[in-house]
Amino acid sequence: MKWLVVLTALVAFAECLHKMPLIKGKSARQTLKEKGLWEEYRKSHPYNPAAKFYSSGTESMTNDADLSYYGTISIGTPPQSFSVIFDTGSSNLWVPSVYCNSSACENHNQFNPSQSSTFQWGDQSLSIQYGTGSMTGLLGSDTVEVGGISVAKQVFGLSETEASFMTYMQADGILGLPIFSVYLSGNSEQGSEVVFGGTDSTHYTGTITWIPLSSATYWQINMDSVTINGQTVACSGGCQAIIDTGTSQIVGPTTDINNLNSWVGASTDQSGDAIVNCQNIPSMPDVTFTLNGNAFTVPASAYVSQSSSGCMTGFGQGGTMQLWILGDVFIREYYAVFNAQSQNIGLAKSA
Questions:
Q1: What confidence tens digit (pLDDT) does each residue in 51-100 have?
Q2: Average confidence (pLDDT) over 4-20
Q3: Which of 64, 66, 244, 256 is catalytic?
Q4: Element (H, E) at 93
Q5: What are the phi and psi torsion angles at 131 (to 5°)?
Q6: What is the DSSP secondary structure assignment for residue 148, as one 8-state letter?
Q7: Mean pLDDT in the chain?
């Protein structure tokens, strides 16, 4: 059964803003690459970042190893602190527990129910399916504090087992959110922010463009096309896209992504990454995503990532699924406001 474990106090806009700083940390992909384990991992676990949007009975999650923006919450009395991914692509809150016997829990903070005077066990189990395995555990309730908001008797998951890729993630768990606005910094580890209850005008310029949801299941909208210099290179005739802070790249169907990477001058290596010459970045074209009749342009400086091993684009293949995910590569360029009440998404140029 699919359990939606959400912070109910965050569903409605508050009169005052509650801000939560986010830290831009290394993704699991980066950590695996540094350890020389990425090639082996990628072969064993095919890249399928859209998996979490196609679930039947359970909340599926991705094994793209690219979750990297996280913040700190606390659970219990006295509070126990955890770093969590703020994920718009799910609505579950879960953290590792002292009952977890997976290697992924050994290097993360673990919740101890016996040390909280306000904790209560639930009577249900929790199972979230991943491409590389699953997170399983039990449901309980306790006081949860997020960005100055305290929620008593909040239901959350306590993991007993976790998928292996969680070992390489800096965050302890995941917090799915139904309503908020997000600013993701580009090059700095600090400066990113999630705001509950409204927007922070210092993080964007101009006006906010509001786009209605095409499906309220996730933050899904209509995308008209993907163009370069006025030429349609992907999403011909229209397609569906999801704005997701829990995915690092911009992801689309294999054929479209291959064509898009070809247009920007990228070549695919044996791992499936789209490699470019770092010196070519200034001359590479902008890519425009037209959403519900509104054009949002992403320059090469934003869609190409640079590291000690070279440069690669942020356009990733999503297998055969006909769905686009506009992840962190897109959200770093456009401040995103998620409004569950009016069922729309607001986008404005990041400051």
A1: 555 544 333 333 344 446 788 999 999 999 999 888 777 778 999 999 99
A2: 50
A3: 244
A4: strand 93-96
A5: -65, -25
A6: T
A7: 83
CA distances from 94 to 124, 140, 244, 280 (A): 14, 10, 18, 42
Dihedral sign (CA 257, 259, 261, 266): positive
Based on the residue annotation, tell me whether 87 is a catalytic residue of this protein: yes
Q: Give the integer Cα–Cα distance in Å for 130 and 134.
A: 5
The residues, ordered by sequence, that sit 6+ positions from 279 with a Cβ below 8 Å of its Cβ are none
> Would you call the peptide bond into 212 cis, given omega within 30 degrees of 0 as the criterion?
no
Strand residue runs (E) in 133-230: 133-146, 149-161, 173-176, 180-183, 192-196, 204-212, 220-228
In tens, the pLDDT along 182-224 reads 998 876 667 888 888 788 999 999 999 999 999 987 899 999 9
d(CA 107, CA 132): 19
Please answer whether residues 196 and 12 qualify as being in contact, where contact means their C-beta atoms are separated by less than 8 angstroms. Answer: no
Span 86-134, pLDDT tens digits = 877 777 899 999 999 999 999 999 999 999 999 999 999 988 876 556 7
Q: Which of 165, 182, 200, 180 is CA-nearest to residue 64?
A: 165
Query: Residue 11: pLDDT band by 50, 70, 90 thresholds?
Result: very low
| 53: DSSP letter | G
Name the catalytic one among 87, 142, 224, 328. Answer: 87
- Are 221 and 292 a contacting pair, CB within 8 Å? yes
| Burial degree of 79 (CB within 10 A; 0-12, 13-18, 19+) | middle
CA distance 323 to 49: 10
Count the neighbouring beta carbons within 10 Å of the beta carbon of residue 31. 18
